[in-house]
Specification:
The chain is an alpha+beta fold. It folds into three domains: 43-80 and 232-314, Efflux pump adaptor protein, beta barrel domain (Elongation Factor Tu (Ef-tu), domain 3, Beta Barrel), CATH 2.40.30.170; 84-111 and 206-231, RNA polymerase II/Efflux pump adaptor protein, barrel-sandwich hybrid domain (OB fold (Dihydrolipoamide Acetyltransferase, E2P), Beta Barrel); 115-201. Helix content is 38%, strand content 30%. The longest helix has 40 residues, at 162-201.
Amino acid sequence: MAMILRNMFSMNAWLFVGCFFLPLSVLAQPPVDGVMIEPLTSFSEEFDTFKKGINGSDADLGMELSDELAVSGITEPLHKVTLRSDGIGRIARIMVFEGGHIQKGEVILFLDNQLEKLEANIRRVLWKNTAKVDAARLKEKALEKLWVDTRALFKKTRSVSLEELSKKELDYELAVAERKQQELGKIKEAFEYKLARARLEKRTLRSPIDGIVTHVYLEEGETSDSRQPLVRVVDTRRCLFVCNVEERFAHGLIKGEKVDLKIHSKDDFVQQRGHIVFVSPVVDPASSLLEVKVEFDNHDYQVRPGVPGFLLLKKVL
């Protein structure tokens, strides 16, 4: 029994020595094929470096610091539109290209509009044709003169009967009604022409904002419908910073308040000054966060919308 215990003690001792000295021997070996094994940086050192890289101070991503709080978020353009056609049609011509600047009201593309052009031209010809109105007016004048002369003759000499005078008056009244009907017809034709022009205009897609074309979804000759996006236009001169803030830090935030932002740009962060345009009146029950939007100027195009950034808030003690 004593022999067995002595052997077990000897084996445990050798295992302890091997586990202790084996890693030391591995670390003591020279690097293989020029590969250097660098010592690991402590977590606290890396965290301090990360914090200072954000804003040169001790602010971090959504962490409470001595006097400041940095809340992470994302940037987006203030004005962005995805345009679609009002109906089905073949794309006849595209007037823009991706990356190009476009002004408000400028033509983006034309859908095939031959039928709409023909209809508009027909409506215009009908509206401009005033032959029936002119004839009705001439008839009215002639019958009016005939009625007036007959009435004067009846009063002066009684050489015409009352029945004939009444017939002349009735003819004149019918001519007046016909002239008014023709004039109303011209008004109707004018509106029909305007409707035809509106349908023709709908075959032309125009930009509702100044901006840059970021995406053209279809090519010339392809068919689109009202559900198919055609072009996306964004205006990056003014942007929004959107973030979610803990409810306990959002009590002092009000619409119109000036705040500081740190926005990622290239390999660094740029300082931006903006104002709050929206503070959500409700809190997400799952995360206890509420949405905050900050508008800031970007006329120098330093910020590309879509990059992350930070909202810097004073910590309420």
